[in-house]
Amino acid sequence: MTRIRTLRPNVTREQAVRQFSVGLPGRLRELLSGPLRSVADFYIPFRIFDVEINNAGKKDRRIFGLDAVTGSLDPYYFDHPPASEDVREFETRNRLTANLDPVQAQQIAITKIQRLLFTRGFFRIRNLAISINPNPQEIHIPYWVGFRGRDRSATFEIIDAVRRQPEGARVRRMLQDWLTSPSNPTPNAVFPLISG
Fold it and tell me: Taking phi first (over 0 means left), then psi (-120 to 50 degrees means alpha), and beta for anything else, what does residue 10 get?
């Protein structure tokens, strides 16, 4: 098992089970895909960057988090680097491995920041300069995954345990690739069953 640093989740396991199960969406998912069989935590590594944006004579400082697996997920933004009370450390096998080297990650982060600025208004950009410095510490973002199924068929859905929101196809694809990868160091990771 590997020791990781992760943001503290805002969603407990019990809250995740409830979110996967209750209401009309939960009942529809159960009818279509089967009952909720298991709920497990898993973690995606993010690289943290200190970013300074100079645009039209104004300076803006941000802390930017980019997933270190593919660089394709929505970034995390922080007002300040995560403090010790916002982070916990522990050992887990349920984590994805960082695939992006630091240079690739930095280039993707710059591109994402530029796109964000351009979507806010191309004509507002004057004398743009972006300074980006990597933070040496990686942080993992916690997610909850709910497995559903009947007989031999299975599906899953994912909740971001910090933002409290369901995740889409990109995160599902990352998890599916990790679960089915022959190079997965923990192919027999135990996902706890739920009762009832």
Answer: alpha
Encoding tokens for residue 1? 């098992």
Q: Domains of the chain: which residue ranges?
A: 2-180
How many Cβ atoms sit within 10 Å of the Cβ of residue 47? 24
Tens of pLDDT along 60-76?
Answer: 888 999 999 999 999 99
DSSP 8-state class, residue 124:
G
Neighbours of 158 (CB within 10 A): 20
SS3 125: coil
Q: What is the pTM of this model?
A: 0.85
Residues listed for the chain: 196
φ/ψ (deg, to 5) at 168: -100, -155
What span, in angstroms and rounded, lies between the C-alpha atoms of 86 and 71?
23
